[in-house]
Amino acid sequence: MDSRSRNGLIIGGACLLAVWIGGALADGSVGLAAMAAVISGSLVLIWSRCLRLETALLAFVLAGYLIGNRGFAQIMPFPGLPLLFGEIVLAITGLIVAVQSAFRRELPWKNDRLNGILLLIITLGVARMVLDVRTFGFWAVRDFATIYYIAYFFVAQAVTTDDRERHRLETLFLGAAAVLPVIALLFQRFPDFFGTTLTLSGIPVIFMKDDLAATFLLAGLFPLLARAGSLSARWWRAGAAAAALLVGLALLSRAAIVGFAVAGTFALLGRQLAWVKIALIALPLGLAATIGTSLVQDVPLRDSRGYALYEHLISIADLDGSGRYESTASTDSGDNNRFRVVWWQSITARVLEENPVFGLGFGYDLARDFVSTYEGVGDDFAVRSPHSIVFTILGRTGFFGLTLFLTLVAVMLGRTHTAAKAARAQLDGAARALSWWCACWVILISACFGVVLENPMGAVVFWILLGLAHASTKAVTEAAAAMKSAESHDPSLQTESEPAIR
Q1: How far is CA 333 from CA 148, 254, 386, in A?
Q2: Are 469 and 433 in contact (CB under 8 A)?
Q3: CB–CB of 121/93 below 8 Å?
Q4: pTM for this model (two decimals)
Q5: Residues 93, 94, 99, CA angle at the centre, nearest 5°?
Q6: How far from the centroid of its chain's Cα atoms is residue 414's Cα?
Q7: Beta strands 203-204 and 199-200: pairing type?
């Protein structure tokens, strides 16, 4: 077929598709139009050789969950079909990676500890879910999302093994992270617009959950500051990072703040001090703005956001909920601590009683004992997650699954230490690799005290960033090893800097 005939067929097919989509829009079905727009835009990028389809789709869900948050997570592209963007993109990208691996005659995972422990967790989850689906039906499949979202790690790892695609995905993530503070502020200022006007089929496109938004803001701070050069040479990154820090703290998420402290420690181990400089500049300015606003509006300082942040910080150690807090934004801090502790104790007791090895299974109502124990919770309590990925894993898969999860954490610690050593040695790309690990730690620590990895908003972002962090660190260490090997064979290539990381 000649090119003119082929182009005519493509144009004719596109016109028919446009008419079909127009009819769907007239009937109020916007999901098909949205999917067509995403696919068409991706095809244009692919044909222009700007972006691979897998990279475009990963960037799409990253930006969607970072900025759209809970709103984006609730959008169903096809009305009546319970498929969300997280599942659709995972199916498409997973199939692409599987086919590409088959053509290359290789497995879609690597032979290392991180890949191995994740495969073990998935295997245990699948075995447990196959048994549970007979008992709990749809609820087992829904709860199993905590496990199957791990597949995003393997997709992201496969895509970002290519240096060019990795840098493109990094750039797209940084763009979303840079605008996130602005979107978060606008959402706080104009909630009605986002809740009732900016909607698709009645569902808000952007609807931010404060604790998750704070987690993403503080997680994005480290990649924003990871590029080489002075802060003045990347002023827009420094400004976005400062805004992310102030807005993230102002949202009063204690879990995100603890995660930020842990990630900051890892950054310091890699001698990455940019976030400290940002904090030393931004925090005094934020405090001054808080005091100034209180004085201008004649509001008591104890009712200010700054004092609420102080009380939230000191309430972290108030495990029994006995503390008294004066700020209206902090009055529930102690109760929230007790809420979690009682729930975690009830799950542990039930697992020990019924099945300590393999847990209670996917679909089991982990809130059953908690509802009957905790004061003030009625029978209409519908939350299924115990606000901790640790106790979710324990409840679903028992101490065997918890052991695998803790092993995963240990492996992540080892890989983060490797990235920190590479950053201290100032290897090319090491600072960026460490920044992705820091972002992962903010999300993971936040998941230990909130509902994060049990839903697509947090899980999809975390597993993609973990795959990106692992691939980045691998690229740095392999480049260092190749350089060392070349120098050992040719002494003329030896330099005084950039020692290899073992």
Answers
A1: 33, 9, 17
A2: yes
A3: no
A4: 0.88
A5: 100
A6: 20
A7: antiparallel
